Amino acid sequence: MAPARIIHSPEEIARIRRAALITASVRDDLAALARPGMTTFELDRLAGELIARTGGTSAFKNYYGFPGNLCISLNDEVIHGIGRDDVVIKEQDIVSIDIGVKFDNAIGDTALTFSFVEQPDDVKRLLQGTREALMEGIAAARCGAFVHDISAAVEKCAKRHKLGIVREYVGHGCGIQLHEPPQVPNYTGSGRGARLEPGMVLCVEPMLTLGSESVKVDRSDKWTVRTRDGKWSAHYEHMILITDKEPEILTWQKTM
Ligand code: MG
C-alpha cells in the first residue's frame, strides 16, 4: 500500500497559498517588532493582534488545548513554548516563533529562530546550520522523489554542521488541516515514505540542537519541549508546494 498523502485540488491550493502568505507576513512582522525586555506573553498578545488584523485566526490556539496564539521557544526550548508574563526576553536570547494561521478554511504554518545581538560562534553555527538544513531539505523536494530524500538532505546538512537532530517531532503535510499525512522526519531510517507528487503541501521543519537529540516535555505546562542537556536549539519551517518543476515555497519572506 502506498504511504498516505494528500494531493490538494487547484481550488484548495489557491486558498492554501493565501493562508501561507498571510502566515509568513505575521511571522515577519512579529520578528521585526520583538524586542528584549518584552515578556513572552506580550509577544503572544502581539501575535494575536497581528493575526486578527489579517482576518484570520490562530491555527494553534486550542489545538489539543494549546493555550497560546503561537509557540514561543527560547534558547534550550525547542518547540511548543507558551507565552508567559514572568518570562522576559533578554538581549542575548535566541527566540523561536512558530505561527499557524487559519484563513478561509486553509492553514499556513511557519517558524523562524532569530536573535537580537551578535551570537557566539556555536550559536551562529546552530542558526545557520538549521537554516541551511531547511533549504537543502526543500531543494530535495522534487516531483518523483520521496519524503526520504527530504529527510536525507536535512540529516546530511545537520551532520555537516555537527548539530543534533530532534527525532520525536517531525515535519508534516499541511493545508486544510494543520497536520496532514505524510510525516516528514528530519532523519532517515524509516523507509522511503510517500512519493512526492504535484499538489502535495509539506511543512519542512528541522529542529536542531548544539547537543544531543534528547528532549523532554515541561512537567508543569505539559507543552514546552526542551533539550535534556540544556544546550540551545533552533527551528525553521517553511510550507512548500510540490509542483512538476521546483518546489514552491509558500511561506517565503524577507527576514530569513
Ligand atoms: Mg509545523
Topology:
Layout: H1 10-33, H2 40-54, E1 57-58, E2 71-74, E3 77-79, E4 94-103, E5 106-115, H3 121-139, H4 147-160, E6 164-165, E7 171-173, E8 180-184, E9 201-204, E10 207-209, E11 215-217, E12 225-227, E13 233-235, E14 238-241, E15 248-249
Antiparallel strand pairs: 1-4, 2-4, 3-12, 4-5, 6-10, 7-8, 7-9, 9-14, 10-13, 11-12, 14-15
Magnesium ion binds at residues 109, 172, 203, 205, 237.
Please tell me about this protein's structure.
28% of the residues lie in helices and 24% in strands. With 256 residues, the protein is of the alpha+beta class. The strands form four sheets. Strands 8-7-9-14-15 form a five-stranded antiparallel β-sheet. The structure holds magnesium ion. Residues 109, 172, 203, 205, 237 line the site of magnesium ion.
Largest sheet: 5 strands, antiparallel
Rg for CA atoms: 17 Å
List the bound ligands.
magnesium ion
Helical content, roughly?
25-40%
> Roughly what fraction of the amino acids lie in strands?
15-25%
Number of alpha- plus pi-helical segments: 4
Shape: globular
Order of helices and strands: HHEEEEEHHEEEEEEEEEE
